[in-house]
Amino acid sequence: MDVTDESHQGGSLMRQSKLTGMMVIVACLVLASYGYAQQDIGLKGAGGKLGLVDPENVESVIGIGAFADLGTITPQIQLEGNLDFWSKSYKSFGAEVSFRDIFLGGTVKYMFQTSNPAWRPFAAGGLGFHFVHFKNTGSNFAGSVVMEQSDVKIGVDLGGGVFYLLNEQIDLLGELKYRIVSDVNQFTLQAGVLYHLKK
Question: Which of 38, 52, 80, 91 has its CA 20 to 30 A from that of 110?
Answer without folding.
Answer: 52
